[in-house]
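cron nightly-structures :: item 1 of 1
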Amino acid sequence: MPELYDWLRQLVTPQAPWFYLSASPYNLYPFLRGFTDRYFPSGQLILRDSSWMTISGLLSNLTMGTLEYKTDRIRKVHSWLPKRKMILIGDSTQSDPEAYGKL
């Protein structure tokens, strides 16, 4: 994947913004930031606002499914850059194909 992302970055434009969207909670930010910084083009990491370490965080994760979370955040990013086209890359572990199909 690092090679694919680098190829896409160069193909589109090196200045294009990158966003990494995950349904993981923010308490994993240090690990995920280190991983993306090491292997992938520089970009904004977007994680869930809640944590599984508290009751309120757990309830938030249970009430907003991954599909809803992903579509909500993709719409938010698109609202920031409404005239930009987006390339969405994902896998099947966090409802990515379903979220892309819904959008």
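cron nightly-structures :: done
The chain has one domain: 19-102.
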